[in-house]
Amino acid sequence: MYMMGEKSGIIGVLIAFFLGSAAAGPLYAAFPIAGVLLQKGSKFSNVLIFIGAWSTTKIPMLLFEASSMGWKFMVTRFVIDIPGIMLIAYITEKLLNEREKQYIYEQASFK
């Protein structure tokens, strides 16, 4: 998975954010997709960013917030969420050792 793999850099992060933000549906629907991303070799932090974006930055939710709570609230929350998601993904990836990450990748496979 070249675009979201270990050496994807900022492109992988942006793709993960876009995929998560453009999604519609409940959070539990993101986990099978995250499993497929892991199977295809996505970088672990990119998968975490995808799940974080799905849960907090979905476009329909942002539009609802803007109409019900105002644009200022929506933009403020969005601006806080983006670095928060990235920080959580980065810290989680650094806290897990290679054996633990390998276990997660193995559990994602359907073999």
How do you describe this structure in short?
This protein is an all-alpha fold and 111 residues long.
Count of domain modules = 1
Individual helix count: 6
Strand and helix order: HHHHHH
* Distance separating the two termini: 19 Å
The rounded Rg comes to: 15 Å
**Largest β-sheet summary:** none
The unreliable regions are none
Number of strands: 0
Q: Which structural class fits the helix and strand makeup?
A: mainly alpha
Instruction: Give the overall pLDDT as a whole number.
Output: 92
Q: What percentage of residues falls in helices of 4 or more residues? A: over 70%
Shape: elongated
> What proportion strand?
under 5%
Could you explain the architecture of this structure?
It is a single chain. Helix 2 (30-39) runs antiparallel to helix 3, helix 2 (30-39) packs across helix 6 and helix 4 packs antiparallel against helix 5 (71-95). The chain has 111 residues and is an all-alpha fold. The model has no long low-confidence stretch (mean pLDDT 92). It has one domain. The chain is built from six helices and no strands.
Give the tags:
elongated; 111 residues; mainly alpha; single chain
SSE order and pairing:
Elements: H1 9-22, H2 30-39, H3 44-56, H4 59-69, H5 71-95, H6 98-108
